[in-house]
Predict the structure.
Amino acid sequence: MRKVFVILACGVVVLVCAAILMGYSTSSQAQQLQGQPHIERIATVDYVVDGDTINLQGGEKVRLVGINTPEVHPQEEPGGREAKEFIENFCPHGTEIGLDVDDLDSMDHYGRTIAVVYVEVDGSWVNLNAELLRSGHAEVMFIPPSEFNPYKWTR
Ligand SMILES: [Ca+2]
Ligand SMILES: [Ca+2]
């Protein structure tokens, strides 16, 4: 009787370990699907222009790829100020951000760098473009050719 119990207990331990390992591998697979942060360079924020545009120190302007937020200039559209404030909270003046520039279309016709912007939150890099979509401050604006598929960020 005691032996049966020990065998059963071992079985339970093995099952629990297997479940933990399986859970671990699926979550890391999910992370891979979402795309690991791929940071090509670090830049410093001068100021946030609006929800999808950031001016960097040194004069470079960045347009967040794959998304659009309501305008703030010259006329404020509904939600424009909220979107601007949302990203200002993540990257106020002087913040170091990570950039992944769109390899297939690196600049728009206003001369702005087209990129995914990463901000550091609790020690890990967060895709700010995706955060704008998930929080409802931005809509998908997919203009091919592009290295990025913003529809993946909404999942
Ligand atoms: Ca916009
Ligand atoms: Ca890139």
The longest helix spans residues 2-34. Strands lie at 41-50, 53-56, 61-64, 67-68, 96-101, 113-121, 124-127, 139-140.
